[in-house]
Write a structure and sequence with these properties.
The complex is a heterodimer of chains A (about 350) and B (about 260). By secondary structure, chain A is mainly α. Chain A has helices at about 20-30, 45-70, 75-105, 110-115, 135-155, 160-190, 190-210, 225-230, 235-255, 295-305, 310-320, 325-330; strands at about 260-265, 270-275, 280, 285-290. In chain A, strands 1-2 form a two-stranded antiparallel ribbon. In chain A, helix 2 runs antiparallel to helix 3 (about 75-105). Chain B is an all-alpha fold. Chain B has a single domain (about 5-255), classed as Ferritin, core subunit, four-helix bundle (Ferritin). Chain B has helices spanning about 10-30, 40-70, 70-75, 100-120, 125-155, 155-170, 185-190, 195-215, 240-245. In chain B, helix 1 packs antiparallel against helix 2, helix 4 crosses helix 6 (about 155-170) and helix 4 packs antiparallel against helix 8. The model of chain B has no long low-confidence stretch (mean pLDDT about 95). The chains are: A mainly alpha (about 350), B mainly alpha (about 260). At the A-B interface, helix 2, helix 3, helix 11 and helix 12 of A face helix 2, helix 3, helix 5, helix 6 and helix 9 of B. The complex binds fe (ii) ion (FE2) (2 copies). One fe (ii) ion binds near residues 2, 147 and 176 of chain A.
Chain lengths: ~350, ~260
């Protein structure tokens, strides 16, 4: 699974910055040069980049959970191996992004503790349930697909360590997406039961996929610090439209139907109707679609989604179960093996 | 087709399945940790080991399938409980305890290297070739678990206590790895599984004692009692059925479908 760095960056302007340095910094960004960890940067930029990288790292390791639950249930040896490797990649993304965050001034342990105590957040889409194998196919297809779209633009950003990490991660995400596509295709060319499984899962994941890019932008998004400082380079709404333009025709080709759904508290669909807005607008060249339920989005982000508690509880269990192991390594005379 | 006497085909398939099943369920148990390991770096490393085990299992199932007529997936997912040939030590859950996970790997990995060594001298060439290919990765697995023994044994008093406890608990069932499959003596005599169980057992004990000595740990290992009927002859712990139910949850929805 994949995270998005789509976190609202709240920059406070209390800290007075040396005006010359700030102008120099902005000029560097505008000329397309990358900012490095040791370079001077405004305190708000450091804070914002840390928030973004940390949120992204959190998303990778929480994102590993819904799919991780299915490793032991994957229906063939090939799928078992691929899914294990995929979840392992996501943990690897988390590890790389925590390193980027560490260099911005926060220890890994502090980040993990803030995650499990709910002080920091992770990507919203991982608060939805994955009750069938079809959900695993849809997560890899839609959510990894959305992540690639987002992360490709983040790889054009201005902060060197983050940009380089995005480039590395994106190569693996492309692989996840391919395998997701293959899983969906296999289900949709399978038995009646498999097709229904895929459609039901698609109905559960279409909304969260549209929400993946974050809420609609403020009108002045281009002037706000995240874009002015190239922390992000494309607005949420533009990314969402790109996603729709790519995935609506792909879904229709596969024989999937796009629905507007209502869900219960557990994230299960209780009613659905065809999304009648779905159509290619020949004037704009873009596909029209119904916006997801943004009230639901804000409800889930505040911690009241179907799986928020479950995901955090599992991360907390992992943190607590591993404590004695980490202590043994810190106190012992031998050191950790190098990262794989 | 290489030489394999007709009457030894079934025992030989069972020997291959014993190795494949050990690896499949060890990999399965270890894969439960992916995403939840005690340290991110180790999470990644441990997941790679789980994947190796499952990939090795897959290769062994393929080989068994050439003799048995079933596909690797049918062998992995489609048998009844009593048809599996794994040992009890890969069946028990680790209750999300890193010490148990590591102690299990200690016993299994050292056993596996020795078994692969015997496989690599098998008169059945497809097996000897495969075993040589898998042996290099197995060596790395042994190194990994040996390092962890030292790390935990010499870490903190708590880590020492926990790993010692896990080793003592699993040492009781670990020797069941040595239970022979049906007609194993004939496979040995025919050169299909060359070497002697007794020597292999001695070597296994020495290796484990050596590692544990470095880690200030110890294990009491009894020889396998031939009277005990266990996993190699299809008698399993209750945990295997539970694991199979989970593993086959999706597969059994449509066993003939492609997934
Ligand atoms: Fe991914
Ligand atoms: Fe990822």
């Amino acid at each position: 699974m994949s995270g998005s760095a789509n976190v609202g960056v709240h920059v406070d302007h209390e800290h007075p910055e040396v005006p010359g340095l700030l102008a120099e910094f902005q000029a560097k960004i505008d000329s397309g040069q990358l900012i490095e960890a040791d370079d001077w940067m405004p305190a708000a930029y450091r804070k914002g980049m840390l928030m973004m990288a940390e949120h992204h790292a959190n998303s990778e390791i929480v994102g590993a959970l819904p799919e991780g639950e299915w490793i032991t249930r994957a229906p063939s040896l090939r799928r078992t191996l691929a899914l294990t490797a995929k979840v392992q990649d996501e943990v690897g993304h988390g590890q790389m992004l925590y390193r980027v965050s560490q260099d911005l001034g926060k220890t890994r342990d502090a980040m993990l503790r803030d995650l499990i105590t709910g002080k920091t957040k992770y990507h919203n889409c991982f608060n939805y349930p994955a009750p069938t194998w079809g959900d695993i196919a849809m997560i890899q297809w839609l959510i990894d697909g959305a992540a690639i779209m987002n992360q490709k633009t983040l790889a054009d950003g201005g902060y060197g360590p983050y940009v380089r990490t995005m480039r590395r991660i994106n190569m693996e995400e492309a692989f996840h997406f391919k395998s997701g596509e293959d899983m969906v295709l296999t289900l949709m060319s399978g038995t009646k039961g498999q097709k229904e499984m895929a459609q039901d899962a698609f109905d559960r994941w279409w909304g969260p996929s549209l929400m993946f890019f974050g809420p609609p932008d403020k009108p002045n998004a281009h002037q706000l610090p995240p874009m002015r400082w190239r922390m992000k380079t494309v607005t949420n709404d533009d990314l969402r439209q790109r996603f729709v333009d790519r995935f609506v025709p792909a879904a229709l080709d596969l024989g999937l139907k796009i629905h507007v759904v209502e869900k219960d508290d557990r994230g299960y669909v209780t009613s659905k109707r065809p999304d009648e807005k779905i159509a290619l607008n020949n004037a704009t060249g873009h596909w029209e679609f119904t916006q997801p339920d943004w009230d639901e989005f804000f409800r889930v982000i505040r911690g009241n989604g179907p799986c928020n508690d479950k995901r955090l509880a599992l991360r907390r269990l992992s943190y607590e179960q591993g404590r004695w192991v980490r202590q043994a390594i810190l106190c012992g005379s031998t050191s950790l093996p190098p990262a794989a | 087709m290489p030489d394999l006497p007709e009457h030894l085909t079934k025992p030989f398939v069972n020997l291959l399945l014993a190795a494949a099943d050990d690896k499949l369920f060890l990999g399965h148990r270890n894969s439960e940790w992916t995403g939840l390991g005690p340290i991110l770096e180790e999470d990644i490393a441990f997941s790679a080991l789980a994947q190796d085990e499952m990939a090795h299992a897959s290769a062994l199932y393929e080989l068994a399938g050439t003799l048995d007529g079933r596909s690797a997936d049918q062998l992995a997912f489609g048998r009844k409980g009593a048809e599996y040939r794994c040992a009890a030590i890969v069946e028990v859950p680790d209750e999300f305890d890193w010490a148990t996970a590591m102690a299990r790997r200690l016993f299994c990995n050292h056993f596996d290297v020795l078994r692969l060594e015997r496989f690599s001298h098998s008169a059945y060439k497809p097996l000897s070739h495969l075993a040589r290919r898998l042996a290099a990765e197995q060596q790395a697995h042994v190194q990994h678990v040996d390092d962890w023994m030292v790390r935990l044994g010499t870490g903190t008093p708590e880590s020492h206590r926990r790993i010692q406890q896990a080793i003592a608990a699993l040492a009781r069932i670990a020797p069941q790895l040595f239970e022979p499959v049906e007609s194993q003596d004939q496979l040995v005599a025919a050169g299909l599984y060359p070497g002697r169980d007794q020597e292999m057992y001695g070597q296994w004990c020495r290796e484990i004692e050596h590692v544990l000595g470095r880690a200030h740990l110890s294990a009491h290992l009894d020889a396998f009692n031939p009277e005990d009927r266990g996993g190699r002859r299809g008698v399993h712990t209750v945990h295997l059925a539970a694991m199979l139910d989970e593993m086959c949850e999706v597969y059994r929805l449509e066993p003939d479908a492609a997934w």
